[in-house]
């Protein structure tokens, strides 16, 4: 069998909206590094990653690429404005827990926002309609194969019954907001679930047995 194919890609974008510049290195659609242009340094997606080799694509080289990107953008914008429709994507938000739910124990809510294009959205959180800012972290934009972007937002939580968490995705340039909700559902204990399933199976078996006896009696009477 042939070995699996892997794709290592580097995506640079520039735009009039914030962030005006972005650069991400991905491996099979998973972000590995992103370049912090204000700080002129490569930043690993996870803290356990080794540092970026300083001799590979130095900040000075990347800044030259960014300047070229901005110049091309302005030139192409002048030529295409009013002649070619602008491509935009409607963000899609999904909320899920990083760990299995246990009410009253710390956990992390993840808001995954996909189909982002252009890569310029704000992500905020609410708990019971009250804005939450503590315990919130955002990732850099990750480019996908369909030319759209994905961004994640994390919120440290301690779920309780009755809580309503809200992830709000806003694209200010178009005055568009996408909202996703998450409500903790107390999982059914496995013992209770097993007992309920056994009871349902037993009731179904008795019902089928009675139905069979009835059909036999009716058949004999007709005979």
UniProtKB/TrEMBL annotation:
The keyword Oxidoreductase does not apply. It is a single-pass type I membrane protein. Keywords: Disulfide bond, Glycoprotein, Membrane, Transmembrane, Transmembrane helix. SUPFAM superfamilies: Immunoglobulin (SSF48726), MHC antigen-recognition domain (SSF54452). Coiled coil: none annotated. The chain crosses the membrane at residues 199-219. SMART domains: IGc1, MHC_II_alpha. InterPro entries: Ig-like_dom, Ig-like_dom_sf, Ig-like_fold, Ig_C1-set, MHC/Immunoglobulin, MHC_I/II-like_Ag-recog, MHC_II_a/b_N, MHC_II_a_N. One of its GO terms (cellular component) is MHC class II protein complex. Residues 85-177 form the Ig-like domain. GO terms for biological process: antigen processing and presentation; immune response. Pfam families: C1-set (PF07654). Belongs to the MHC class II family. This is DMA protein. It comes from Sula dactylatra. The lineage of its organism: Eukaryota, Metazoa, Chordata, Craniata, Vertebrata. The gene is H2dma.
């Amino acid at each position: 069998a042939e070995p699996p194919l892997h794709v290592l890609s580097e995506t640079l974008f520039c735009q009039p909206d914030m962030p005006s510049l972005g650069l991400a290195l991905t491996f099979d659609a998973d972000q590995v590094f992103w370049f912090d242009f204000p700080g002129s340094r490569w930043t690993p997606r996870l803290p356990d990653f080794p540092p970026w080799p300083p001799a590979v694509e130095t900040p000075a080289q990347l800044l030259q690429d960014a300047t070229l990107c901005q110049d091309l953008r302005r030139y192409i914008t002048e030529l295409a404005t009013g002649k070619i429709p602008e491509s935009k994507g409607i963000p899609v938000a999904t909320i899920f827990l990083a760990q299995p739910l246990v009410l009253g124990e710390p956990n992390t809510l993840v808001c995954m926002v996909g189909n982002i294009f252009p890569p310029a959205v704000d992500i905020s959180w609410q708990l019971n309609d009250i804005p939450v800012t503590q315990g919130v972290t955002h990732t850099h934009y990750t480019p996908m194969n369909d030319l759209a972007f994905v961004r994640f937002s994390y919120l440290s939580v301690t779920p309780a019954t009755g809580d309503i968490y809200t992830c709000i995705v806003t694209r200010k340039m178009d005055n568009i907001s996408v909202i996703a909700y998450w409500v903790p559902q107390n999982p059914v204990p496995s013992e209770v679930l097993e007992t309920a399933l056994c009871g349902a199976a037993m009731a179904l078996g008795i019902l089928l047995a009675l139905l069979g006896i009835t059909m036999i009696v009716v058949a004999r009477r007709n005979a």
